[in-house]
Amino acid sequence: MTAEIIDGKAFAAGLRAQVGEEVAALKARHGLKPGLAVVLVGEDPASQVYVRNKARQTVEVGMASFEHRLDVATPQAELLALVERLNRDPEVHGILVQLPLPDQIDTAKVLDAIDPAKDVDGFHVINAGLLATGQKAMVPCTPLGCYMLLKERIGDLSGLEAVVVGRSNIVGKPMAQLLLQANCTVTVAHSRTRDLPGVCRRADILVAAVGRPEMVRGDWVKPGATVIDVGINRIPAPERGEGKHRLVGDVAFEEAREVAGAITPVPGGVGPMTIACLLANTVTAACRAHGVDEPKALAA
Ligand SMILES: Nc1nc(=O)c2c([nH]1)NC[C@@H]1CN(c3ccc(C(=O)N[C@@H](CCC(=O)O)C(=O)O)cc3)C=[N+]21
User: Which amino acids does the record list as binding NADP(+) (predicted)?
Assistant: First the structure.
């Protein structure tokens, strides 16, 4: 069996088009223009590319984009002051502080300074708690994107065995919450899990979010399973020439596609969904801020 390749890039383009329609409708009906502020501290090249992509896509869907680039040595107090300003700015409906932050800054402190209603990353402890208790939260973009791909591919997830490999606050834990809410039987596995291959082989839905290149092998996959690969790892690719790199996921793609029913590629899978969901969350936040019905298609 060769797996269907889940085209995250195409799905994300469709989602962005829907976001664009909702933005146009908000403008026409309510004179409301959703705005996203992105804060980048330092000059990490990968982060710069990523922030530029976000800003471009934000403008493409008709939203306002506010970019704040701060020096790598910015003191924590200065970053907190900026966050406070953005919290009060009525044109800003979503705030994203790009991670990782430099060492002088306490990341948890900054994330928790963001108004939970503007926390389009869904990283605030209030949003984590709302999600965990089944209340209206801002849902982290990567798990939200994975969930949308799963719903599109499978439909009703009730009763399915889901295994999430990875227990981060940003992906693993919120992913598990979404799957639980969809009535899956959820196992959160990690580096200390006993017989990790055996646990993964139980999964109808296998989500790999560990950050280790190609760790999940083909023989860890149950035949016919849906495999969602969250990993984006840059590894050396000498076969492409000296000093060249390529992107691989946390799943050994060529092996897994022989066994799985469907699988997301890297690149072109979960990554583009993350950005599309950031835009979707910004529309959701703007609607909630103004007491306007939020579009169902843009949420979990
Ligand atoms: N506050 C915060 N929120 C984030 O959501 C956040 C962050 N900080 N810091 C960095 C990570 C990384 N991240 C990516 C999103 C999309 C792609 C993406 O679209 N990747 C393309 C490939 C891009 C390429 O070719 O390099 C793909 O997978 O097809 C990658 C990485 C969001 N992050």
Answer: 166-168, 232
Q: Which atom in ligand 1 lies closest to the alpha carbon of residue 99? A: 8
Ligand 1: centre distance to CA 31 (Å): 31
Distance from C-alpha of 54 to C-alpha of 48, rounded to nearest angstrom: 10
Ligand 1 pocket test: pick from 9, 11, 47, 50 the residue with the most ligand atoms within 8 Å of its Cβ. 50
Instruction: Tell me the C-alpha distance between 274 and 170, whole Å.
Output: 12
Return the domain boundaries, the chain.
30-128+273-289, 141-271
The per-residue pLDDT for 93 is 98
Q: 141-271 sits in which CATH class?
A: alpha beta
Q: Is 48 a catalytic residue?
A: no
Same fold, 30-128+273-289 and 141-271: yes
Structure tokens that stand for 267 in this block: 């690149």
Summarize the annotated binding site for NADP(+) as residue ranges. 166-168, 232
- Annotate 147-174 with DSSP letters as a single string: HHHHHHHHS--TT-EEEEE---TTTHHH
- 57, 119, 121, 250: the catalytic one is 121
Distance CA 206, CA 68 (A): 37
Tell me, in angstroms, the distance from the centre of ligand 1 to residue 50's CA. 6
Q: Which residues contact ligand 1 via a Cβ below 6 A?
A: 50, 96-99, 121, 141, 232, 247, 266-268, 271-272, 274-275
Pairing of strands 205-208, 226-229: parallel
CB 16 within 8 A of CB 60: yes
What pLDDT is recorded for position 212? Answer: 97
Ligand 1: which residue has its CA nearest to atom 30? 271
Fold of 30-128+273-289: Rossmann fold (3.40.50)
pTM above 0.95, yes or no: yes
Q: What is the pLDDT of residues 108-118, one digit of tens each?
A: 999 999 999 99
Q: How confident is the model at residue 1 (pLDDT cuts 50, 70, 90)?
A: confident
